[in-house]
Amino acid sequence: MSPASLLLLCALLPSCLCSPQDPFAWLFGPRGDCPAECDCPPSFPVAMYCDGRGLTSMPSIPSRIKYLYLQHNHISAVPDSAMVNASNLVWLMLQHNQIHSDAVGRKALLKLERLDRLYLHHNNLTSVPSLPRSLRDLRLNHNSIDKLTAADFEGMDNLTVLYLHNNAISDMGSSLKGLVSLTLLDISGNKLTKIPESLPAHVHQLYLESNSIDSVPEGFLGGFSQLQYVRMAHNQLTDKGIPPNTFNVSGLVELDLSFNQLERIPIVSTTLQHLYLQANQIKEFSLGSFCSFVDISNFSKLRTLRLDGNEISPEDIPSESSQCLRQAFEIEI
């Protein structure tokens, strides 16, 4: 088994199973520089496990540590002094703690110039702390963040994954515009009333469900070059708020508009594979929404179509739909 595989295994198993009677223990002594409240498996000297220990403050961090696990504790502050020796950190797991924004030192995280992955979800943050520009994976979901500023993510050219769901964000401005590498953006479960402006152009997955969005701007999807998954369930979308052909764009694989207030099936691209429209107010099965015409080479690629919880029944499906929707294996009405 490779060292990388063993490191991953130790992240999943209780730390006590990774370190006893380790043949490399002589390298660091009984505990070396590892804090008494944590475990540092000597065979993986760059990892430190302090998760689920009931900690209320940050432990001392040896300079050799690259992977630090502090999740599921009661830590409320991350002062600058806590990160004095932590400049080699690559992963920092601080999720499920009690960290407050005003208790995060201004330079505590900012100086971690090698940090690749930072998990701060399920804390008590009300704003985005000062962060290193090296991050690729940032998780800030399940906090109480209510606003984003242009400086929050400035210079984060490497960021590919950003979780901001289940906060209290009502306006994002153009705070995400500069995230040129972002591929996954989850801003569901916030207080948005409109789709944010200047979203990164290379996003593959865009999750906007469980907000209060009632309309989509003209040409909304035209600004994305690689978008494949759009989820806007549990909003307040109406037919009036969706310009014609908004979702008739090639490249889109999945579109979720369930639990809104739509009365008609919007026109979608023939390349779309999964369409979720359940729990709306749709009154008619309009085949033209899927196929403008049908022949041997022109038909919908839809595989999944959910229309249950609307005001139509199976009898409303026109007989010629079998030609248009010939690849569908699941149609629920």
From TrEMBL:
It is found in: Secreted, Extracellular space, Extracellular matrix. It comes from the Eukaryota. Its main location: secreted. Residues 1-18 form the signal peptide. Residues 33-67 form the LRRNT domain. Belongs to the small leucine-rich proteoglycan (SLRP) family. SLRP class II subfamily. Affects the rate of fibrils formation. May have a primary role in collagen fibrillogenesis. Binds to type I and type II collagen. This is Fibromodulin.
